[in-house]
Every structure is written in C-alpha cells, then in structure tokens.
Specification:
With 387 residues, the protein is of the alpha+beta class. It has a single domain, classed as Peroxisomal Thiolase, Chain A, domain 1. Helix content is 35%, strand content 26%. Strand 12 and strand 13 form a beta hairpin. Helix 1 packs across helix 2, helix 3 crosses helix 5 and helix 9 packs across helix 11. The protein is globular. The chain starts with a strand and ends with a strand. The model has no long low-confidence stretch (mean pLDDT 97). The structure holds coenzyme A. The site of coenzyme A has 20 residues, from helix 2 and helix 7.
Length: 387
C-alpha cells in the first residue's frame, strides 16, 4: 500500500522586510544577504499571530469535509510552543472543529519536529489505511536585532495531510537518521531568541547530511543519479546549496544541471519568506512542487535537520495528481502583494511582547490578514478568534 503526502498548505503573515533595506541599515553589502546567505525577503510575524493561529490558517487552506471526518491525529511540530504543558495541537483541534476522538500531540526537536510528524504519521496510516493524520510545522524564527542570525529569521506554518494513496508524494520505506547531543543552536526556556553557533551548526548539518545520505544509499542500493530533485532543510537557502554541492560530484554533468535547476525551484519561496524552522523543508518541497516541471514517478530526496542535533534523509515518489492541489499563481500574487515594512517598523514589532505576568492583553487584530488570529490573553488563557 502507498502512503504519503496527500495535501500540503502554507500560511505566513503578509508583512515582510526587504533584506536590501536591512543590509543598508546594518551597514552590510546587500550581496552578502542576497548571495552569501541566499535570502531576499523576511516575514515579520506580528503579535496577533502565533504558531497555533498560523497552523490553523495553513490547515484551513487545504481542508475538506471528508478530511475532517477521517483525521485521527494531529502531530504538531514546533520549537515555538505557546505553553509548557498544553500542546499546540489541542488548540488546533478545537479551532478546526475536529472530532473529540483525535489524538493531539506536540513534537519538539528543533527544526526536525515536522519530519518526526510526517514519518510517525506514515507508520500510523500504514496500519490504519482508511485514516488520515494532520502534520504541522509552525514556528517563529528569532535570533535578535543586529545579530549575525538576524538575516535568517522568519516565520510561518506548513500543514500536510498524510493518507493512503496520496495525491502528491508516496513516501518510500527506507530512511536514514542520525542524532547526537550537541550545542549548535538552542533556546533556554526563558528566552524568546535562539542561541546559536552558526558556523558549527553549518558544519554539523553538512556532516549529518553526508552521513545520512551515504547510509541511505547503502540501505537502498540507490545512487544520487536515481534522484530527480533533492530538497533540504533551509534555515537560509545557501545552506541547502552547500549540502547539495557536497554530493554533486557523484553524478555526470547533465544530472548536475538537473539537480541544480530543481534546487533553484525548491528555494524560490524560502528566499522570499525566510526561516520557518521546522516548516522550512516542507516550504521548500512546496516551492519545488509549484515551480518544477518534473513528471509523475520522479524521485525526490528530503534532508531534514534539527539542531541539537538530529538529521534524517528520506525519499518519495511524485504522483500523477501532484499539480492539482497546488496554486502557484495564487502564491505568486500573495508574495507580490504583501506589505513591505521599514526596518524601523520591523524593529518596533520585533520588540513587542506579551505581558511577562500573563496579565490580560489584547493584540491588534484589525490589520491581521489571517482567518485565525491570536487575540490576546484573558484570565491567563490564550484567546484565539476566527475572523
Ligand atoms: N557578496 C557575496 N557573498 C558574501 C559577501 C558579499 N559581499 N560577503 C560575505 N559573503 C558570504 C560569505 O563568503 C559566506 O559564504 P560561505 O558561507 O559560502 O562561506 C556567507 O556570505 C556568510 O558570511 P559569514 O561572514 O560567514 O556570515 P555571518 O558570520 O554573518 O553568519 C550565519 C552567517 C548563517 C552563520 C548566521 O546568519 C547564523 O548563525 N544564522 C543562523 C543559522 C542557524 O540557525 N543554524 C542552525 C539551524 S540549521
């Protein structure tokens, strides 16, 4: 039986900064950000959106009534959780109007959480082929104003429905994973901004990719030449390019060209939106699916990396109907019509925070474009609204 990604949807707030503006303000050559980092624009997340409301907005864009009746489980990958106890998934169950007999769990391992969700969902659906799982990757990436990581911020959510006989991507059985307790990027419980050793993290990412990919090749007897596209976790898009370059010499020139073309397709959206943490790999997959002309039957590689650190390489086969559920024209229109903030406006939004004592607070939902918004705090409880 075939199991995999049946639907994929995305949401990010419609406010952004242009990284040329940021470069000028920070006294940096813009080409460092555009070429050296591989990013052009960055989403700015207002207080009226959090990982729950963004996930609800992403999920609602792909939901049908039949999904509502057949979803058995929500696996919510995030490293920007809104409560130390209650999972973000249970808020989502209520916002989306799902049945009560749905399992709701939050998964955390830095940017790897959504991949854990996809692969656990695949195993569940393999045992229960008439059921579906909603997998979320939703995060707000914050490194701090005027830090080296500032250019790799962003935010947004990806929602995927995993089912039997999926429309988009059938997941192949073999995967290769690797984990090691290291401190390349982390966020102590009382901090909103990540701590990161960016150069070290880059080296571990590349090492994990090569190790996981070699192990996958041994398990499957497949080679890089068996792939039509390789996708990567993209905290910034140059990162995936560095990964791909470590293996490109394994194939001939034509294949190299093809893999580079598809890599460019896979980073169109990420360049414009920025870092989604755990959603980044799946935004890249969505970008590839929307931009590519690959035929059904093509094999896609997926490399997931979550600092701390865990890496996994797996693969899937494109299905006949994969273009039908996508709407690249709508996405292009949305990307072109977002609100460009000045650096000063972005800094003001970045510095806004909820009351430290969880006192009553209302966010400004009037300018928010989301169907679902985080309206504030009342009696120490988070309040979500559908507009
Ligand atoms: N034109 C073109 N490229 C330029 C340039 C210019 N004018 N100036 C610099 N560059 C290039 C550098 O050569 C370098 O390229 P390379 O990585 O291929 O060598 C790149 O731009 C970045 O420059 P660097 O000086 O190394 O950047 P930095 O010290 O400002 O830090 C990161 C960059 C990515 C390490 C930093 O933004 C970061 O830590 N981000 C967070 C990453 C993360 O979260 N990792 C964990 C999850 S995977």
């Amino acid at each position: 039986m075939k199991v995999g990604i049946d639907k994929i949807g995305f949401y990010a707030p419609n406010t952004y900064i242009d990284l040329i503006d940021l470069a000028k303000e920070r006294g940096v050559d813009p080409n460092k950000f555009l070429i050296g980092i591989g990013q052009e624009r960055q989403t700015v997340v207002p207080l009226s959106q959090d990982v729950v409301s963004m996930a609800a907005n992403a999920a609602t864009s792909i939901f049908s009534e039949s999904d509502r009746d057949t979803i058995d489980m929500i696996l919510f990958g995030t490293e920007t959780g809104v409560d130390n106890s209650k999972s973000a998934a249970i808020y989502l169950q209520q916002l989306l109007g799902l049945r009560k007999n749905v399992r709701t769990v939050e998964l955390k391992q830095a940017c790897y959480g959504a991949t854990a969700g996809v692969l656990l969902a695949r195993d569940y659906v393999t045992v229960h082929p008439d059921r579906k799982v909603l997998v979320i990757g939703s995060d707000i990436a914050r490194y701090g104003l005027k830090t080296a990581g500032e250019v790799t911020q962003g935010g947004g959510a990806v929602a995927m429905i995993i089912s039997a006989e999926p429309s988009i991507l059938v997941l192949e059985a073999e995967t290769s994973h690797i984990s090691e307790d290291i401190m390349d990027f982390w966020r102590p419980i009382n901090r909103r901004e990540a701590l990161v050793d960016g150069k070290y993290s880059t080296n571990v990412y590349l090492d994990f990719f090569q190790t996981a990919f070699e192990s996958y090749k041994k398990q499957t007897d497949r080679e890089l030449s068996d792939f039509d596209a390789m996708t990567f976790h993209l905290p910034f898009t140059k990162m995936g390019l560095k990964g791909l370059r470590t293996v490109l010499n394994q194939v001939d020139e034509n294949k190299q060209k093809q893999l580079m073309t598809e890599f460019e397709n896979s980073r169109v959206y990420n360049k414009q939106i920025g870092n989604l943490y755990t959603g980044s790999l799946y935004l890249s997959l969505l970008s590839l699916l929307s931009e590519t002309k690959l035929d059904a039957g093509s094999r896609i590689g997926l490399f997931s990396y979550g600092s701390g650190a865990e890496g996994e390489f797996y693969s899937g086969i494109l299905q006949e109907a994969y273009k039908r559920q996508l709407n690249p024209e709508q996405m292009a229109h949305w990307l072109d019509n977002r609100t460009r903030l000045t650096i000063s406006e972005y800094e003001t939004i970045f510095n806004q925070s909820l009351p430290a004592d969880n006192g009553d607070f209302e966010t400004d939902i009037n300018k928010d474009d989301g169907v679902f918004v985080f309206a504030g705090i009342k009696d120490k409880k988070r309040i979500y609204r559908k507009k």
